[in-house]
Design brief:
Blueprint: E1 2-3, H1 7-16, E2 23-27, H2 36-43, E3 48-52, E4 54-62, E5 65-73, E6 79-83, E7 88-89, H3 140-159, H4 161-167
Parallel strand pairs: 1-2, 1-7, 2-3
Antiparallel strand pairs: 4-5, 5-6
């Protein structure tokens, strides 16, 4: 089972069909948030079945691990157990920025805002990279890329006169 309805869930479901005879995609809504192309790829894969408008309620475990997922049909309220060997959760993403307590500027969802084309935050010398500032792509490769950008931005900052002015 893959739980979710976004691009990550579609990608995960397609990937898992390489190893599983069937992948069940469970989403709490009838519509998916994934891009059209990702939905089309998943729907074209005969190994993916769909349980839409279902809310996961409970993971069922046996002696050897996961054996099922109890879900509720959001239209009828009926509950069912889907037998599975594994569950992969690919749902929403909330950045872990609450500990900053408003010191850095964020958007309404908690993602750190950076100066366009850089990793500079609203505080000089503080740089943001990875998923904490990427509300759109949230992929390992883009996180690594912004990590590199942050390192370069930091290096430039440390070499700049701006740092010398802060030290005075």
């Amino acid at each position: 089972i893959v739980i979710g309805g976004g691009d990550s869930a579609m990608e995960e479901a397609n990937f898992l069909t390489r190893f599983a005879s069937e992948v069940v995609l469970v989403n709490r809504r009838t519509e998916l948030r994934a891009s059209k192309i990702m939905q089309e790829r998943a729907r074209a894969n005969a190994k993916i079945s769909w349980k839409l408008n279902r809310t996961p309620l409970e993971v069922i475990a046996g002696e050897r691990g996961v054996t099922g997922l109890k879900v509720r049909n959001n239209d009828t309220g009926a509950e069912e157990i889907i037998e599975v060997d594994g569950i992969f959760v690919a749902i929403g993403h909330t950045p872990n920025t609450k500990f900053l307590d408003g010191q850095l500027t964020t958007d309404e969802h908690g993602y750190l805002l950076v100066k366009p084309g850089t990793t500079e935050t609203n505080i000089p010398g503080v740089f943001a990279c990875g998923d904490v500032q990427d509300s759109r792509y949230r992929q390992a490769i883009s996180a690594a890329g912004t990590g590199c950008m942050a390192a370069l931005d930091c290096e430039r900052f440390l070499e700049s006169a701006e740092l010398k002015e802060l030290a005075l």
